[in-house]
Amino acid sequence: MQSFEQDMISLEFEEVQAVLDAIEMQMSASELHGYQAALLTMGIRFDELGWWEQFLTDYPFSGKDTLSDEDKAMFVKLLAQTQRQLEASEFEFDLLLPDDDASMILRVASIAEWCAGYLSGIQTAVTLATPEVRGRVESSEQIREVLVDFSAIRQADKLEISEVEDLLETERNYAEIAEYVRVAVMNINMDIMLQNLEDAEEASKEKKPTLH
Q: Rounded CA gap, 41 and 120, in Å?
């Protein structure tokens, strides 16, 4: 478990998608980012080898043995970028989505894929998290509601173009959905972070010797 040391230049959607397309991995940059964000918001931290092993367990693909070091570094850099944003106090976290000049259909599909990746990551994270964090996820009505909402947003990529236009009539509606997802993830991250701090404080109290 560790924080990654990576350069501060942020990866963009198109850059990550280009690598995924080149290695013929059947996932989008948004889905990858959602998956990583879920693990991080649940307090899961990996070293580089541990992250890679877990990722290939959840997303096996035939080209894994031919990946270049540069391609592997992209995955780790994105993870480091996401971790840095989530841990920042300035609410820097943002979803990895196509630029605003991309088609509405691509953007809708990407936010649906982002939510799909997040839900996939949550499934993995609850098996790796501490019992206290698992209990928090299972008992929190707020987290449950967010996951239900994400499940609904995930279905957007199955809509026909006319239906998408009916659902997201304006740029503002799309922006509102993206902002809802972004803020919801930050809130979950804060909730779990506070839970981990409480657990650490309790563990520290238990270790202190009793004075007589």
A: 13
The count of residues in the chain is: 212
Tokens of 190: 């804060």
Look up the CATH number of domain 13-207.
1.20.120.740
Task: Kindly indicate the confidence band of residue 1, based on its pLDDT and cuts at 50, 70 and 90.
Answer: very low
Sign of CA pseudo-dihedral 63, 22, 106, 12 = positive
Task: Give the count of alpha carbons within 13 A of 56, CB side only.
Answer: 13
Question: What region does 204 belong to: left with phi over 0, alpha with psi -120 to 50, or beta?
Answer: alpha
Question: What is the torsion angle, in degrees rounded to the nearest 10, for the CA atoms of residue 177, residue 179, residue 184 and residue 186?
Answer: 160
* Residue 179 backbone dihedrals phi, psi, to 5 degrees: -70, -40
Instruction: Count Cα atoms within 13 angstroms, Cβ side, for 21.
Output: 7
Percent helix / strand / coil, the chain, rounded to 5: 75, 0, 25
Q: Are 169 and 131 in contact (CB under 8 A)?
A: no
Annotate 172-203 with DSSP letters as a single string: HHHHHHHHHHHHHHHHHHHHHHHHHHHHHHHH
The per-residue pLDDT for range 125-168, each reduced to its tens digit, is 999 988 888 888 889 999 999 999 999 999 877 666 566 666 55
Q: Are 25 and 67 contacting, i.e. CB atoms less than 8 angstroms apart?
A: no
DSSP H helical ranges for 47-140:
48-58, 69-87, 104-128, 131-139
